[in-house]
Write a structure and sequence with these properties.
Layout lengths: L1 H17 L35 E8 L3 E11 L2 E14 L4 H4 L3 E14 L7 E7 L9 E10 L2 E10 L40 E10 L5 E7 L18 E10 L2 E8 L3 E11 L26 H13 L3 E9 L2 E8 L5 H13 L8 E8 L2 E9 H9 L11 E4 L11 E2 L5 E13 L6 E14 L4 E13 L22 H5 L3 E15 L2 E9 L4 E10 L6 E14 L2 E19 L7 E9 L5 E10 L5 E9 L3 H4 L5 E9 L11 E6 L16 H4 L10
Parallel strand pairs: 14-15
Antiparallel strand pairs: 1-2, 1-12, 2-3, 3-4, 4-5, 5-6, 6-7, 7-8, 8-9, 9-10, 10-11, 11-12, 13-14, 13-18, 15-16, 16-17, 19-20, 20-21, 21-22, 22-23, 23-24, 24-25, 25-26, 26-27, 27-28, 28-29, 29-30, 30-31
């Protein structure tokens, strides 16, 4: 009966498509989110992927589950979803001393890949996988096809595993090999599972999403591929395989949803969204310098230079700017602190320099530094710059003659005109540490204030320290005393409750010796209290060719664990730790950085950490990382391996004045001891960001 009803629905859909015009109907609101997070219908997915850069926060609630999820369209063809599921009918564990009355939490990751794009007559096709890393409560995969016909978006697909539990058709792969006839019910927490793909029960599903004439409202109808007889939450009665729902666009950034599912269950929730490609900085109060060239002089004139240096610092954003003329070149050096795009700073500096140009200068040489390390020099031919600023006759436009070269060091020629650097710096900033989905509490966090100060003894030797004041945290729920039975690893991170019990402590106190070694090599030596939990000594070297898409670094460290009862002392635990790290920014996808670190972790386990980060047009970066080590799942404990997710947001998206600072919000599912790296404050790859080729070149 169910199959006949499904086929009838499909026949209506196909008939509608046959009479449709060849042009596809635009979707003014874009794809909506499903109950599980990620674009879709209600319980079932579709083949749609949101516009690249769309980031959604989703919440759905019914009698059995609460779903918290984030979904992002990383590319036009790839969507990723991270989900926390609250199983309201089950306890986290049978030990009330450990997890109290907390309900069971499940963490999972989904992805969807577009196989081909919709055309006038061919639907869009996508392959998706649910619950790739977790216990597999909702583990499944699907093939979905979606076709837009006027205001109606039609979807038809086949699902395996959880979304195909009704088994309304025979699994076609089962006929090929018996291994596809069965599927594991649950995996161990933290497992990444592809071995069960296309195994077990299979089902057809279908659905319709209708854009009503009233634009804020969309309606959904789907035929469910799941019968809910094998739920972890307990048997759920399904009175009907049809689910219906409505999506109301309350604002450009918010959707409200109300669904009636299984013929007996209300599901409600909301979606908050933004697009990381569309975010732009606030209005600037710092216009570019006007091109107003003065008559050329026989050399740098003090009065003009004083004005230029002030503009170079406050308009072009060069801290401690220094100018010097030699032969036919005018040199500028300084640390660019204001603009994320280095081209903006160089352009402003060139405009300032050309307005009071000494006689005979043919080249402008602008060198950017970072932490006193020379990064890159941009050489610009004065004649081409002047022509560009004055404007070309129509049809005679020319390219600006400009190139990036290895940094020029003119210190051997003596001191130029400069604004003297302040060698002492300080800051006060709020901090947030957090983890999600632990047995003791779903959300555990610490907020506080970090007061930092540093002093440059020389151009290469830095003294740096920070004092942290704890404002509030709920890590008192963290039952660290029970964890040794869960893992056999040394407790290198799970003493976090003991550390955060200190109201005020020295967060770090260290000395760093940094130096450019030449030929693309940079190095540093460091020692002291390097982070909250560890102190010691170490060294790092980085090879980063100018404008290359790759870099290679190595760090070696010997550290001791700081005593949480007296933060100025150490415990007996010590460890050598270090990594060989490769960085790669593929030219074909210039906005993606892949980082692979191989070495030994704090718990003396050995393995590799992969970090993949996508940078959007606004500068917002979204990254995921995972560490796999030689420690067994039994020794590691719950979670199986270390993993996390982070979003890095440029602060100039929220401030009137431009700046290069960023705020990082990170989520770590569980605090465990395997795959843990030293949290050094100063790392050479971040310190040498100016050597990356600017986006768009």
């Amino acid at each position: 009966m169910k199959q006949r009803l499904l086929l009838s629905c499909l026949a209506v859909a196909v008939s509608s498509a046959c009479y449709a015009e060849t042009e596809t109907f635009p979707d003014p609101l874009g794809p909506s989110q499903s109950d599980f997070g990620g674009t879709g219908l209600l319980q079932m997915p579709n083949a749609r992927i949101a516009r690249e850069g769309e980031f959604s926060l989703n919440y759905r609630d019914n009698d059995q589950y609460r779903f918290y999820s984030t979904s992002i369209a990383l590319f036009p063809w790839l969507e990723g979803t991270i989900r926390y599921s609250d199983v309201r009918t089950r306890k986290y564990s049978n030990n009330p001393d450990f997890s109290g009355d907390q309900s069971y939490k499940d963490k999972s990751f989904d992805f969807k890949v577009r196989l081909w794009e919709e055309s006038a007559w061919i639907p869009q096709l996508a392959l998706g996988k649910r619950d790739i890393a977790g216990t597999g409560l909702f583990d499944g995969e699907y093939l979905a096809a979606s076709k837009r016909v006027g205001p109606v978006d039609l979807t038809f697909g086949m699902a395996w595993g959880y979304p195909g539990n009704s088994g309304n058709i025979s699994n076609p792969f089962c006929r090929m090999n018996d291994k596809y006839c069965t599927r594991a019910e649950l995996n161990d927490a933290g497992d990444i599972s592809f071995s069960d793909m296309f195994r077990g029960p299979a089902a057809l599903f279908a659905g319709v999403e209708y854009q009503t004439p009233w634009h804020p409202l969309r309606l959904k109808l789907e035929y469910d591929g799941n019968d809910y007889k094998n739920e972890f939450a307990g048997h759920i009665k399904q009175a009907s395989p049809f689910n219906v729902g409505a999506v109301y666009r309350a604002a450009e950034w918010a959707d409200l949803t109300l669904n009636y599912e299984r013929g007996n269950t209300l599901m409600f929730g909301f979606t908050l969204r933004t697009n990381f490609n569309d975010l732009r900085p606030a209005l600037r109060d710092n216009p570019k310098p006007h091109y107003q060239p003065a008559p050329e002089t026989t050399g740098l004139q003090y009065t003009a230079v004083a004005s230029q240096l002030t503009e170079l610092k406050y308009n072009a954003g060069f801290n401690a700017p220094e100018m010097l003329q030699r032969d036919n070149t005018l040199y500028l050096r300084g640390e660019q602190y204001r603009y994320r795009d280095s081209r903006e700073a160089v352009d402003r500096a060139n405009r300032i320099l050309i307005n009071h140009l000494p006689e005979g200068v043919e080249t402008l040489s602008v060198t950017q530094t970072r932490n006193h390390l020379p990064m890159v020099t941009t050489e610009t031919q004065v004649s081409s710059l002047r022509q560009q600023l004055e404007g070309y006759p129509l049809g005679q436009e020319k390219t600006l003659e400009q190139q990036r070269v290895e940094p020029v060091d003119f210190s051997a020629w003596g001191r130029g005109y400069r604004i003297k650097e302040s060698r002492f710096n300080y800051s006060l900033s709020p901090t947030l540490a957090q983890s999600l989905g632990g047995p003791e509490g779903f959300y555990m966090f610490q907020v506080g204030l970090l007061a930092s100060a540093n002093y440059w003894l020389t151009d290469n030797l830095l003294l740096d320290g920070g004092v942290f004041a704890n404002l509030y945290n709920n890590y008192d729920k963290f039952n660290s005393s029970l964890l040794p039975t869960d893992s056999t690893l040394p407790r290198v991170r799970t003493h976090i409750r003991d550390y955060v019990a200190n109201d005020v402590y020295v967060n770090n106190l260290q000395g760093n010796y940094v130096r450019r070694l030449g030929q693309g090599f940079y190095g540093q030596l460091y020692g002291g209290y390097l982070e909250t939990m560890y102190g010691g000594v170490g060294a790092e070297v980085l090879f980063r060719p100018l404008d290359a898409s790759w870099a290679l670094g190595m760090d070696v460290n010997y550290v001791k664990q700081r005593d949480w009862n007296n933060m100025m002392r150490f415990t007996d635990y010590s460890a050598p730790t270090g990594f060989l790290t490769a960085y790669w920014n593929p030219p074909q996808v210039n906005s993606v950085l892949m980082k692979l670190s191989v070495g030994q972790y704090l718990a003396k386990d050995k393995g590799a950490t992969l970090d993949v980060a996508k940078r959007f047009d606004s500068g917002v970066t979204v990254g995921v990382w995972a560490a796999m080590t030689n420690v067994s799942k039994e020794d590691y404990g719950e979670g199986g391996f270390s993993k996390g997710f982070y979003v890095s947001v440029p602060l100039d998206l929220m401030t009137i004045s431009p700046n290069r600072n960023r705020a990082v919000v990170s989520w770590t599912p569980l605090t465990r001891d395997g795959g843990q790296m030293l949290g050094r404050k100063y790392q050479l790859y971040g310190m040498t960001a100016e050597r990356e080729m600017p986006v768009g070149q």
